[in-house]
């Protein structure tokens, strides 16, 4: 019993978080920056912060994640980190030769009041940024928000810097992606390819954090959104922003600066959210939906129909990021499952509203909460009050799954103890099939392992 101290008596907590359902802001900023081609993320803080951010990403993606640090000492903590960052910018361009440095702050540099914008401007006037090179920045104080906030802040920083409005409209769509896997980014591009839509996907971590073994080390892999692509976003026809928490700020910034109108949609997880995504794509790009995509939808519908008996009425507990939890909850409801417990460490008032809309009629017994006290401890307490048939979320749920003997599907960030997420998408109709396969595998494995001998079934 790894979590034997968890009690089933839920008490109101105001300041204490136990096993948070989130991680720190700069991890998200770093992940977003890695989705730009030729970009080196830079952590403005202590070496320890940078090591943690890098290792969190490396352990999930099983790829080396490069990033630089301002390497704060006691002196910088007292007198400010400006001189460290100025020196770092000069050194990085000279030694590592990136096209872009993406600087994010940390708890420490935010607390002492370092102004990243002012320091980057000084780096420019001091001649530390070579011609044709760029430094972008985003504030990521980790004592508020979560990794999703950091992702959103860096995406906003990118969009405020590169897209440029000219008088020439380009026949292309901007797709701002929320925090999803490289495999999902590839899937978004595949879908837009099937629909023959010219597009710029930002960020794009495919071919950055899922690179093939070639025998040669590439500090800047071939993937990532390029500078010309990002500049051209200011002249696009429309922006489609996927996942409100991660992309809304960037979509608004792009609309404000370049007057590119945007449509906000959920991440396309499950049937209905993917339907809305495909319809939105079709509308903003003025194209019809090809038969190949309708066929994929039909395959997912067929599988749901065939397997409904194993899913009906199953009680599910899930945790993670709001952008994923909202469409996933909708997907579970559409399969007549019961998402009874939902927590997210990422704050945001809309979470409660969206969850209420989804759950109040179709699963009125559901409990859901987000913000700092919506942690794994609370979820475990709810599970102890009344059990569930399935647990879905990142690797940290394995302790609850083990103690309570619950089938467990790994989804979200981070997944530290399994592979597959970098290669097999969970977005779109085909991604829906993957989610369904993962759920069914766990449910059927549990049934096979626990049912009496005379009930063992050879065939589904
Ligand atoms: S100190 Fe703040 S920025 Fe650094 S690792 Fe901890 S939470 Fe993240």
From TrEMBL:
Its EC number is 1.18.6.1. This is Nitrogenase molybdenum-iron protein beta chain. Keywords: ATP-binding, Iron, Iron-sulfur, Metal-binding, Nitrogen fixation, Nucleotide-binding, Oxidoreductase. This molybdenum-iron protein is part of the nitrogenase complex that catalyzes the key enzymatic reactions in nitrogen fixation. Belongs to the NifD/NifK/NifE/NifN family. It catalyses: N2 + 8 reduced [2Fe-2S]-[ferredoxin] + 16 ATP + 16 H2O = H2 + 8 oxidized [2Fe-2S]-[ferredoxin] + 2 NH4(+) + 16 ADP + 16 phosphate + 6 H(+). It is an enzyme of class 1 (oxidoreductase). One of its GO terms (molecular function) is nitrogenase activity. Binds 1 [8Fe-7S] cluster per heterodimer. Residues 24-443 form the Nitrogenase/oxidoreductase component domain. The lineage of its organism: Bacteria, Pseudomonadati, Bacteroidota, Bacteroidia, Marinilabiliales. The keyword Metal-binding applies. It comes from Carboxylicivirga linearis. InterPro entries: ChlB/BchB/BchZ, Nase/OxRdtase_comp1, Nase_comp1_CS, Nase_Mo-Fe_CF_bsu. Pfam families: Oxidored_nitro (PF00148). Its cofactor is [8Fe-7S] cluster. Tetramer of two alpha and two beta chains. Forms complex with the iron protein (nitrogenase component 2).
